[in-house]
Amino acid sequence: MSQSAKLNCGDVELEVPVIEGTEDEKALDISQLRRETGLITLDEGYVNTGSTRSSITFLNGEKGILRYRGYAIEDLARNCDFVEVCYLLIYGDLPSHEQLDEFRSAIHSHTMLHEDMRMFYNGFPRDAHPMAMLSSVVSAMSTFYQDALDPADPEHVEICIHRLIAKLPTIAAYSYKKSIGQPFIYPENDLTYCENFLRMMFAVPCEPYEIDPDFVTALNMLLIVHADHEQNCSTSTVRMVGSSNANLFASIAAGVCALWGPLHGGANEAVVNMLTQIMDDDGDVEKYVAMAKDKENGFRLMGFGHRVYKNFDPRATIIKAACDRLLEKMNIDDPLFHIAQQLEEVALRDEYFVSRRLYPNVDFYSGVIYRAIGIPVPMFTVLFAMGRLPGWIAHWKEMHSSENKRICRPRQVYTGENIRDFIPLSDR
Ligand code: CMC
User: Which among 299, 354, 382, 407 could bridge 291 via Cys, Cβ 3.0 to 4.6 Å?
Assistant: First the structure.
């Protein structure tokens, strides 16, 4: 017999069913709560709130487990190509050879931007943040493909998916080229996803560009480990916007904006800025640890802590090992990597961080790899967005196919004024 809990609210006793997931996670189903008792739940920051059932990603923060569609992140990062992982997340299974070829060629046929879309970049200031450009251009895709925006039409959805995955690297690379005043480099469809992106970022028309296979490997791994993370802030945003039946481009543009914040994807940029600040401050790591502990200060160690991971972040473990390998192979002695390691050592011994179970997260070492590849700091979060795109799409699709789909509309506990007599302006 399935479990339930009993809730006594005044005269009413409510039997609350316990829902079980496939990994023994349990949740109280409070969907009848307001109808039966007149009460709602209050859970600021949704710390205890499950917003949906989902079969895309499983993570266990205590044990440091992360799996996409049942596959361990370590296996996927070691063995897969990012496009394969996109397929896995969006369609639920690893693709066969034929399925993967078909998916790749669908993506290849959409890598270019409409020439009119390139004109947007002329309107942005030179120093515009690339995340702002990314969300604007993704949102503007709704204006170019008006004939295929219906969330209820599987063919429309499919072509939107191909367009997004194909064009995001092009949009991202153009944002960078705009910021440094270089000509845009058109995509080259013979290249792999990561090769093509690196070429669009770093090639110039007047010189040959050689793609470094180590950079491709590192970038591929980074995109994979960022590809999904269940109901995080940006994914929940995509689902929330999509729940109103807004089209896929509009929903993804909203996700990009949510990701930009420094408490979420923007942390990778904030980490490198923080490490640079520490380096410029004579490498005084202890000082910054003390500042992070000082509640009056408001400073936080960027790249530390996680809402769900309370032991270690498996993505950080993979990234740190890759970072070690890449720097050694390239014979780079990056002072920021040393500071990051020192900071980690100091913080992991410190009672403040230990008792709060604050560990380096995915963003702590990723910036060191991006730097080694030559990616400029403002582009770090854009890379996160490129990685997270298949996760956003998978969740948007899952939400639309759910039989329980409803518009997301939380309630509130009102704490404002009670009704007041209106005072005309002349008497105020
Ligand atoms: N430095 C110093 N103290 C911290 C930090 C930190 N990075 N993170 C959390 N704390 C403290 C916090 O002050 C609080 O202390 P107390 O209990 O004394 O009030 C306690 O730890 C719990 O923190 P919280 O803010 O209630 O935790 P949260 O689950 O709401 O926030 C977080 C999670 C990731 C936003 C937060 O740890 C943080 O701000 N970290 C730095 C930003 C960062 O690296 N973000 C990237 C997250 S991973 C990538 C992603 O998913 O986007």
Answer: 299
Residues of the chain with pLDDT under 70: 1
pLDDT at 133: 96
- The DSSP secondary-structure symbol of 15 reads E
Half-sphere exposure of 135 (CA within 13 A, CB side): 16
Whole-angstrom Cα distance, residue 401 to residue 404? 9
Counts for the chain of helices (H) and strands (E), in that order: 19, 6
Q: Which ligand 1 atom is nearest residue 295's CA? A: 13
Give the Cα separation of 320 and 298 in Å (integer).
Answer: 27
What pLDDT, on a 0 to 100 scale, did the predictor assign at position 332? 86
Task: State the distance from the centre of ligand 1 to the C-alpha of 277, rounded, in angstroms.
Answer: 20
pTM here is 0.94
Atom number in ligand 1 closest to CA 361? 48
Give dist(CA 248, CA 168) in Å, integer: 14
Residues touching ligand 1 (Cβ under 6 Å) are 45, 229, 232, 263-265, 267, 292, 300-307, 356, 358, 361-363
Catalytic-role residue among 363, 395, 400, 427: 363
What gap in Å lies between CA 173 and CA 113, rounded to an integer? 12
108 is annotated as an active-site residue = no
Instruction: For residues 81 and 78, give the distance between their C-alpha atoms in angstroms, rounded to a whole number.
Output: 9
In the annotation, is 363 catalytic? yes
